[in-house]
C-alpha cells in the first residue's frame, strides 16, 4: 500500500466514523463554519481548561473531506495547548495554500492525509473549514468562519 492509498483510507475511515461528533453543552468556546460552495456546515465546540483543550467536538453535515478533516482535527487537538493548536492550524494552512509540495507530511501524522486535497483546489475549502472554525473560536470570539 502506498502513502496515497493510506491517506485515502484515513479520509474514508474518519468520514464513516467521525471522532468527537457530538455537542458539548458546557463549552467555553464555539464557532460555526460554512462553505457555501459545497454546502458544508459545522459547529465547533471547545472546552479550555486554562490553556489546554480538554475537550473538543463538532456537529454538522458536509462532504467526506469536510467531515474527515473535522474528525482528524478533534482527534489531534484534544489535550494540546491553544498555542500548539494554532501552530497546527498554521502548518496545515501552509500545506493547503503553498504552491510547493509539503516537505514532511509524516510529521503531520494522520493530518497528512488532508494534503491530498491540493490536487483538487475546490476541495481545499472543504478540508480547511473546520480549521477556520477552530481559529475563529479561539481568536475571533466565535464569528462564523466562511470559506468565501
Question: Which short descriptors sum up this protein?
Answer:
single chain; 148 residues; Sufe protein. Chain: A
In short:
The protein has helices at residues 3-16, 64-77, 82-97, 124-139, and strands spanning 29-35, 40-49, 52-61, 145-146.
Number of domains: 1
Mean residue pLDDT: 91
**Helical coverage, percent range:** 40-55%
Shape: globular
Question: How far is it from the N-terminal to the C-terminal residue, by CA?
Answer: 36 Å
Side-by-side strand order of the widest sheet: 3-2-1-4
Strand proportion: 15-25%
Structural class: alpha+beta
The CATH topology name reads Sufe protein. Chain: A
Low-pLDDT stretches are none
Question: How much is the radius of gyration in Å?
Answer: 14 Å
| Total strands | 4
Task: Give an overview of the whole structure.
This protein is an alpha+beta fold and 148 residues long. The chain has one domain (3-141): Sufe protein. Chain: A (Alpha-Beta Complex). Helices cover 41% and strands 20% of the residues. The chain is built from 4 helices and 4 strands; from the N terminus they run αβββαααβ. The chain has helices at residues 3-16, 64-77, 82-97, 124-139, and strands spanning 29-35, 40-49, 52-61, 145-146. It has a 4-stranded mixed sheet with strand order 3-2-1-4, covered by helices on one side. Strand 1 and strand 2 form a beta hairpin. The longest helix has 16 residues, at 82-97. It is globular.
Amino acid at each position: 500500500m502506498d502513502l496515497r492509498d493510506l491517506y485515502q483510507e484515513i479520509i474514508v475511515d474518519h468520514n464513516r466514523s467521525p471522532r468527537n461528533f457530538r455537542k458539548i453543552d458546557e463549552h467555553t468556546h464555539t464557532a460555526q463554519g460554512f462553505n457555501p460552495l459545497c454546502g458544508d456546515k459545522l459547529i465547533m465546540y471547545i472546552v479550555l481548561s486554562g490553556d489546554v483543550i480538554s475537550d473538543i467536538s463538532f456537529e454538522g453535515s458536509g462532504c467526506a473531506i469536510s467531515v474527515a478533516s473535522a474528525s482528524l482535527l478533534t482527534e489531534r487537538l484534544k489535550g494540546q495547548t491553544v498555542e500548539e493548536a494554532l501552530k497546527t492550524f498554521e502548518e496545515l494552512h501552509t500545506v493547503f495554500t503553498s504552491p510547493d509540495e509539503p516537505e514532511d507530511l509524516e510529521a503531520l501524522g494522520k493530518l497528512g492525509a488532508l494534503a491530498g486535497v491540493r490536487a483538487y483546489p475546490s476541495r481545499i475549502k472543504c478540508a480547511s473549514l473546520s480549521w477556520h472554525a477552530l481559529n475563529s473560536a479561539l481568536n475571533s470570539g466565535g464569528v462564523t468562519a466562511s470559506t468565501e
